[in-house]
Design goal:
This protein is of the alpha/beta class. It folds into 2 domains: 2-110 and 263-292, NAD(P)-binding Rossmann-like Domain (Rossmann fold); 117-258, Dihydrodipicolinate Reductase, domain 2 (2-Layer Sandwich). Helix content is 34%, strand content 33%. The strands form 2 sheets. The protein has an 8-stranded mixed sheet with strand order 8-9-10-7-11-12-13-14. Strands 3-2-1-4-5-6 form a 6-stranded parallel sheet, sandwiched between helices.
Length: 301
């Protein structure tokens, strides 16, 4: 499938290799304003919009540009792989979703944690831990930030996507975004979500932390699941029971999954969808995540 890459900054250069390695896609154009019109490189976005040979595009531009670029290419009948988050607001996402459905094209957002083998296994094990009481997560690092995107859009979005992946769009009762960093953009903060089923999610994200931390804990009434990307084991399961005022561990299992190829897995999933798979889960999850992110302007304190 002939494919174009839109945006050739830090992430665009990373994703280029994975597109070229994919058996689903043939990269025929790379578009970015600073590129010369030479070889497969171009700065002419309109040319690619109207190129009937291009069937899919990968969008790695700033989030503020996603809506207009996605809209143009969907209307031109092309499949979209978009870096997270898809857009800035729920209204924008609904317009894109309607366009994708009208043109029968795929609108796929790269929520890379949802294709992680550890997170996938974690979801399989959820029924073993009973009713989910709490989801706690943290992503911390010294890392890149962008003038128009706060830490919730850059890092917190991963934690929101995992919560949505686990809870299957259960309605939210309340959501609160706490800004720990009063700079612009905000580089550290906390998200607390109370779902209608009683589950509480407590999510921390920071771009001003000296160590890399990727950790998610799901506590249930019968056990706990722990994802730790940089731990001795990427996933642990511990069952327990309550006996005479003490919680007693009963069983523990652990797994070590390879988390280095999740972008490859996401591109493979996108390729399968472009070739006829009708699974709507990524589109539905993307809409739910944008709804959660969009609501931060109502509850920031």
């Amino acid at each position: 499938m002939k494919t174009a890459l839109i945006g050739y900054g830090y992430w665009g250069k990373i994703i280029e290799k994975y597109i070229c390695d994919s058996t689903h896609f043939d990269l025929v154009a790379v578009c970015s304003p600073e590129l010369d019109n030479k070889g497969i490189c171009t700065n002419d976005l309109e040319k690619l919009v109207h190129d009937t040979q291009i069937e899919a595009v990968f969008i790695c531009t700033p989030v503020s540009t996603h809506f207009n670029i996605c809209k143009r290419f969907l209307e031109a009948g092309k499949h979209i792989f978009c870096e997270k988050p898809t857009v800035k607001t729920s209204e924008q996402f609904q317009i894109l979703k309607n366009s994708a459905e009208k043109t029968h094209r795929i609108l796929y957002t790269d929520y890379i944690y949802t294709v992680s083998p550890s997170i996938q296994k974690m979801k399989e094990l959820l029924e073993k831990i009973g009713d989910i009481q709490n989801i706690s997560g943290e992503i911390r690092q010294f890392g890149r930030f962008y003038d128009e995107d706060d830490v919730f859009e850059v890092l917190g979005i991963h934690l929101l996507s995992v919560a949505a992946f686990f809870l299957n769009s259960i309605s939210v009762q309340t959501i609160r975004y706490d800004l720990w960093d009063k700079g612009s953009p905000c580089l550290s903060g906390r998200i607390e979500i109370r779902f209608d089923n009683g589950t509480i999610a407590d999510l921390v994200c920071s771009s001003v932390y000296p160590d890399k931390i990727r950790r998610i804990v799901v506590q249930g009434t019968k056990g706990t699941l722990i994802f730790d990307m940089y731990g001795k084991h990427t996933l642990r399961y511990i069952s327990y029971s309550r006996q005479s005022h003490i919680c007693v561990p009963e069983k523990e299992e652990s797994w070590q999954f390879d988390e280095r190829n999740n972008l490859q897995r996401a591109i493979e999933q996108f390729g399968v969808l472009c070739n006829g798979d009708t699974d709507p889960s990524n589109l539905d999850l993307s809409g739910y995540v944008i709804e959660l992110l969009d609501r931060r302007k109502e509850f920031i304190i």
